[in-house]
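Format notes (please read before filing issues)

Several people have asked whether sequences and structure tokens are stored in separate files. They are not. Every record keeps both together, in the order shown below: the sequence lines, then the token lines. Line labels are part of the format and must not be stripped during preprocessing.
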Amino acid sequence: MQPSTHPRLLLALSMAIFGTLGPFVRYISISSGELALWRAVLAALLIGLFLLVTRQTIPFRQIKKELPLLLLSGMAMGINWILLFQAYKYTTVSVATLSYYFAPVIVTAVCPLLFREKMTPKQVICFAASTVGIVLITGVSDLGQSSSDLIGILFGLGAAVFYALVILLNKFIKSVGGIHRTFLQFLAAILILIPYVAFSGGVSLGGLDGTGWICLLVVGLLHTGVTYCMYFSSLKDLSGQKAAILSYIDPLVAILVSVLVLGEAMTLWQIVGGALILGFTLWNEIEPKKKKE
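Then the structure lines:
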């Protein structure tokens, strides 16, 4: 029991940290694209320094066939961040996060097409119930700024699409280790984000106040660099089911932070919709007990 406690604790802690991202983003007064760029730059510098100190080299000869997939997944990750940060600007952290957590449902729906897997009756039920949850969150908003909320939800769903793309692309990447994969994906994200930022307004870090700088460093170094390392370090020692269950700490913490810390409201129907998304997506991840070794 002792060996499995550490990775579970590590993953739970990383998910809890991910769940606190929204409030920090609110205090960084730069564009979503620029924020995504500096997030990737700071995280890549931190992980690059770690690889240098630990004298780990990237086996380019072994992974050269998968570099295009790494490049694409890193680009998708960068776009995913832009859309998620935009969602935070237009709606509450809880609603943006719940919209974003539609990604596993998208993966479930797309896998039969890409991997010739048949959807089980359970998966069909989970997909339908989660879709109803999104409709409830989107269609019955009563926060006083329904048009703004709808835009935020659409950005959240867009982020979910690109996060699902990251998950699906990574299913094809077999020979690249977790931390090397993350480092290369951050570099790929930087490659696409530099021209995007250059053509969409440029760099505006000079306008940040002290709080903004602190929040930017926390988002780049803690929420991205440190936490992604914790996340991937714990995944290799956990089953997919355990990892999936612990990943739900992220949206639950995000909702608690949104309601209790930021004082953001949720309607009854949005709570019901969120429960449908999280509950049925979690049920979809839990496999029936089979023979245990």
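For reference, the curators noted about this record: Residues 146-171 form the longest helix (26 residues). The radius of gyration is 19 Å.
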